[in-house]
Amino acid sequence: MPTISIITAAYAPSAAYLGETISSVEQQDLPAGWTLEWIVQEDGATPSLAHHFAGVPHVSYEASGAQLGIAATRNLALSRASGDVIQVLDSDDVLLPGALASVIPCFEDDRVHWAVGQADDLLPDGKRVSWESALPYGLVSAGEVNKWAEKHEGNWPIHCAGLALRATSLRAIGGWVGLPSDEDIAMFAALSEIADGYNFDGVTWLYRQHPQQITRSASTRHLSEHCRRLAMQRVKAVRLMDSRFGTNRATGFGHDVHSVDVGPAIKQQPKA
Prior knowledge:
single chain, alpha/beta, Spore Coat Polysaccharide Biosynthesis Protein SpsA, Chain A, 8 helices, 27% helix, Glycosyltransferase family 2 protein, Nucleotide-diphossugar_trans
């Protein structure tokens, strides 16, 4: 039975809207035969969000106990995920009813390694602002996303905060990139260069705009050009490797690559 794993990197100072995010997950329906798990990883040295998830179905909450940043926090969540498909969801965004049921069928096509629904901006006053997709709807061939980004000064046409990803593909490229911002773009730039995806024609989630959101933080926003430059450098490096994720059996569901046991690090063990 295939599973979809929602991954949420939570952070207390920007979690004022967490209740709405939780409600949106609780309202999701899945296609027949699918199960849901929600992997929540809280960043920060003084975690304080566990009580929000008490009694919420399908949730696996864990606190890192240190300030690690969003890339490391998402990757720690990925290490605990057992799903065949990973759905990204930030702790201030909202999945609309039917979101998962709309996106999951995209992965029935073995060519599809990533998929995304359209997002409306959710403004502080509750109003929604819609945006026209920069890319055609339907199957997106490998490399097409980055060609658009190259023509638009390193700005990408896909909103990575709402991505759904084939778990094996995400793990194969190393998860999210260890950057202070745009870590999702640097991940997606590599994946979309070597793998086909799907741009779903329908609004499936809301991207909340508010003063506390991490992407507006002055501590990291000024680094965006550096981070997006690395993303484009990664694209060019991947092209030189001339590699491609295909449609072989490894792209299907039911591959138990998440089930791995490890012991203590050898360097941490006392010498005899």
